[in-house]
Amino acid sequence: MRMARLALASRLRWSAAVRTDEELIADALAGQTDSFSELSARHRQRVERLCQRFFSDQEIARDLAQEAFLKAFAALSTYRAEMPFGAWLRAIVVNVCYDELRRRKRRPEDLVGDFSEPELGWMQLVSTATPEELVAEAEERRESHDLAHRLLDSLKPEDRMVLVLKDSEELGVAEIAQMMGWSEAKVKIRAFRARQLLRKQAERMTSAARPRVAK
Amino acid sequence: MNCFEARQEFRAFWRKEMSPERRSAFVAHLAECRKCDAAFRTFALTAPVFHSEAEPARPMSGVRRVATASHRDGRAYREVRRAQPWLSMAAAVALFITGASAAYFSVATPDETLSDAIHQPSQFAEVVSADYPEAYSDFGQ
After folding, report:
1. Is the torsion defined by CA of A162, A165, A167, A170 positive or negative?
2. A94 and A130 housed in the same domain
């Protein structure tokens, strides 16, 4: 009996210690900035990971994540509990990354430039290795990420945004349309064009690398 | 597994979220379908960014790599010499300059030169010359 009471007390203490996002937001709005720190610590990893899908440089990704948290803190009073805090925060992160992508204005001709030896090695592997080997090697090789970023850099910011949200974040067309303020038709067309362009760029990339790989 | 099913599974295969049986069926399909195989290889070019949980760390270079490696297995000196041959030379020059400066400022006050300090009779010479004025009358001149 005593043991059961102790277990119940400890469970109550635990539930009191782990507050929900909504409770933390209420506390933050009441002036407890520590609550927002706890909230951001809880979501930091996911936010930084999302930023890294747009920018290969980890410092830039971290800076953008920080900027997104600052914007979220400034706009916290506009948060409505109808949607999860994570989804609300994701919309802010996506907007921050989108602005940064547009600010940077990529030049597609940069894509087929000089490849480093490890990048050439990775491209050779992509054309020759078995699917199992590819998955295992991609985890180990930094160049697989660098090359993927180079390939994605050739897309327009809008196209890259749609692909990240659709393929990586696994959002539906309607959700993306709402987040970006576009029509659903526009999202579908963007996604289709982005994939088509990506395929072409991948072919250009591998054909540009082939003579050098053969040497 | 047909082509439509296989293409739905690209993501799950990359994230290792498939059962072993399904995984084998997927690999077998790619082995016999050239179109799906090519599509998977195109997918593999962007999958590291879209579907990996973490990016591998960027390879470190220079002093940072050496510091980390030597800290890990205690071969600091050899590692430094191999990776940055100029570093030991720079350290030797810095050590020489520090030593020379220390020697200079320990004997000379700011107002006198090193040569003055060397040619000045020491306290010992003054004590000895006081006892033996004839023998040390020209000491230090």
Report:
1. negative
2. no
| Closest CA of chain A from B104, distance in Å | 46
Residues of chain A neighbouring B8 (CB-CB closer than 8 A): none
Look at residue B51 and tell me whether its pLDDT is greater than 50.
yes
Per-residue pLDDT reduced to its tens digit, A53-81: 888 788 888 999 999 999 988 888 888 87
The mean pLDDT value for B116-131 works out to 58
What does the pLDDT read at residue B141? 46
The answer to whether residues A201 and A135 belong to one domain is: yes
For residue B12, give the chain A residue with the closest CA.
Answer: A135
Can you tell me the ipTM of this complex?
0.71
Position A185 scores a pLDDT of 93
A76 and A36 Cβ atoms separated by less than 8 Å: yes
- Residue in B30, B46, B58 nearest the CB of A198: B46
DSSP one-letter string for A8-50: HHHHHHHHHHS--HHHHHHHHHTT-HHHHHHHHHHHHHHHHHH
Domain that holds residue A82: 21-104
Q: How far does B101 lie from chain A, in Å, by closest CA?
A: 41
Question: Given an 8 Å threshold on Cβ–Cβ distance, is B50 in contact with A163?
Answer: yes
Is residue A84 located within the same domain as residue A179?
A: no
Q: Which residues of B touch A56 (CB under 8 A)?
A: 49, 55
The region of weakest confidence among A52-56, A93-97, B132-136 is B132-136
- Residue A182: count other Cβ atoms within 10 Å of its Cβ: 17
Q: Is the pLDDT of residue A26 over 60?
A: yes
- Evaluate if pTM is beyond 0.80: no
pLDDT score at B62: 52
Which candidate in B52, B53, B58, B60 is best for mutational testing of the A interface (most A CBs within 10 A)?
B52
User: How far apart are the C-alpha atoms of A148 and B47, rounded to whole Å?
Assistant: 7
Decide if B58 touches A, using CB distance below 8 A.
Answer: yes
What is the C-alpha separation between A86 and A39, in angstroms, rounded? 10
Nearest chain A alpha carbon to B57: A142
Instruction: Assess if residue A203 is contained within a domain.
Output: yes
